[in-house]
């Protein structure tokens, strides 16, 4: 079974940056998937069952906190590792991310090397 990473962000340049950062993982059989809003993300998560999701907080249709809550709390998909990616670095936002089940919280701008190492570690490729 191939490993899958879902990148969810409504800003195209952020999605492209993350894809470029993680593209070397494709050589190891990792499939990169994308979604541009919360509703689309939920559909992809249900259908593709990615092991790792990089999830933006502020998006149209459904925000990242609501997506994370649905996946972790309602659907009980504990095997999906969710990293909240956001420009909001305040402690209250971090706590909200934890309360909805996020596994990790990264603030933008992020270090591409750290993001790559994070993905490798979570997927057991390091």
Portion in helices: 40-55%
CATH topology: Rossmann fold
Query: Mean pLDDT, nearest integer?
Result: 94
Which strand-content bin applies to the residues? 15-25%
Q: Structural class, judged by helices and strands?
A: alpha/beta
| Distance linking N and C termini | 18 Å
Tell me the Rg in angstroms: 13 Å
Order of helices and strands: EHEHEHEHEH
> Which blocks of ≥5 consecutive residues have pLDDT under 50?
none
The number of distinct structural domains comes to: 1
The CATH superfamily bears the name Response regulator
Quickly name the level 1 CATH class. Alpha Beta
Total helices: the number is 5
Judging by the overall fold, what is the CATH architecture?
Answer: 3-Layer(aba) Sandwich
Instruction: Tell me the number of strands.
Output: 5
What descriptive keywords fit this protein?
single chain; 126 residues; alpha/beta; Rossmann fold; five-stranded parallel sheet; 5 helices; 43% helix
């Amino acid at each position: 079974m191939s490993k899958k990473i879902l990148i969810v962000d409504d800003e195209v340049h952020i999605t492209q940056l993350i894809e470029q950062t993680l593209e070397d993982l494709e050589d190891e059989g990792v499939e990169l998937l994308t979604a541009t809003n919360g509703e689309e993300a939920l559909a992809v998560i249900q259908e593709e069952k990615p092991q790792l999701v990089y999830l933006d907080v502020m998006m149209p249709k459904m925000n990242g906190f609501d997506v994370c809550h649905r996946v972790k709390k309602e659907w009980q998909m504990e095997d999906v590792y969710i990293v909240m990616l956001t420009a909001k670095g305040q402690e209250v936002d971090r706590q909200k991310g934890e309360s909805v089940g996020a596994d990790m919280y990264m603030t933008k701008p992020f270090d591409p090397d750290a993001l790559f190492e994070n993905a490798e570690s979570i997927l057991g490729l390091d």
